[in-house]
Amino acid sequence: MNGNILVVEDEPKLARLLSDYLKASGFEPFLLAHGSEVVAWVREHKPALVLLDLMLPGRDGMDICKELRTFSSVPVIMVTARVEEIDRLLGLELGADDYICKPFSPREVVARVKAVLRRTRDGQTVQAEGLVLDEHRFRAKYHDHDLGLTAVEFKLLQFLVANPGRIYSRQQLMDQIYPDARIVSDRTIDSHIKKLRRKIEAIDPGARLIHSVYSVGYKFEPVPIA
Ligand code: CA
Question: What's this model's pTM, rounded to 2 decimal places?
Answer without folding.
Answer: 0.57
